[in-house]
Amino acid sequence: DAGVIQSPRHEVTEMGQEVTLRCKPISGHDYLFWYRQTMMRGLELLIYFNNNVPIDDSGMPEDRFSAKMPNASFSTLKIQPSEPRDSAVYFCASSFSSWANTEAFFGQGTRLTVV
Amino acid sequence: EDKVVQSPLSLVVHEGDTVTLNCSYEVTNFRSLLWYKQEKKAPTFLFMLTSSGIEKKSGRLSSILDKKELFSILNITATQTGDSAVYLCAGTNFGNEKLTFGTGTRLTIIP
């Protein structure tokens, strides 16, 4: 398996524009997580899905953020409208639930810059 | 709210030194403590600890968990420049697969 795949790797956009980040989890994994990483706040969980269903979106900062998982192999994180304070690295991760293993595998991240 | 705190925030040592990184946690229905290494890109998995007092070891890296005092340490012996990275710890709880991360320790190894 190629691991968790995110696109784009880098995104530079103007304030007010819509941004869509994409993620393909590892095949067979039933959990998918979206994290945001900044120097100030570290890795913050935004939302996670189990079997394509959103379980906890309490980390989503505002209504400008939305996430979907239409099927087991694809998820999107959308920011509309984007603001400069949204600039961060956004990571997608996936894991397989079992009684013993909670290791999550991370994608390479999308570095978002909003100017 | 679950909380994970790491110390020190940053550490600079010379090659060959031994370092100890600390992680304390307050996680409801605690299940496991994970250590990740993050270089330039994605965090990569190092260890998962679920039981107190049992050391996990991989080469020069080792880690142990104390569930009574709610902390874990990551030791790196004979450090090398390739060990320079941010080291993250995360707690998980029963009932979900969510990881709560600390802010990390930035380790810099000087040749």
Secondary structure blueprint with pairings:
The complex is a heterodimer of chains A (115) and B (111).
Chain A: E1 5-7, E2 10-13, E3 19-24, E4 31-38, E5 42-50, E6 53-56, E7 65-71, E8 74-79, E9 88-95, E10 105-106, E11 110-114
Chain B: E1 3-7, E2 10-14, E3 19-26, E4 30-38, E5 43-49, E6 56-58, E7 61-66, E8 71-76, E9 85-93, E10 99-101, E11 105-110
Keywords:
heterodimer, A: 115 residues, mainly beta, seven-stranded mixed beta sheet, four-stranded antiparallel beta sheet, 0% helix, 54% strand, globular, B: 111 residues, six-stranded mixed beta sheet, five-stranded antiparallel beta sheet
Strands of chain A, count: 11
Q: List low-confidence stretches of chain B.
A: none
Could you say which structural class the secondary elements and strand pairing of chain A correspond to? mainly beta
How many helices of chain A does DSSP assign?
0
Strand content of chain B: over 45%
Order of helices and strands of chain A: EEEEEEEEEEE
Distance between the termini of chain A: 36 Å
Helical content of chain B, roughly? under 10%
Instruction: Describe the oligomeric state of these chains in a short phrase.
Output: heterodimer
Main sheet record of chain A: 7 strands, mixed
Radius of gyration of CA atoms of chain A, rounded to a whole number: 14 Å
Largest β-sheet summary of chain B: 6 strands, mixed
The counted number of beta strands of chain B is: 11
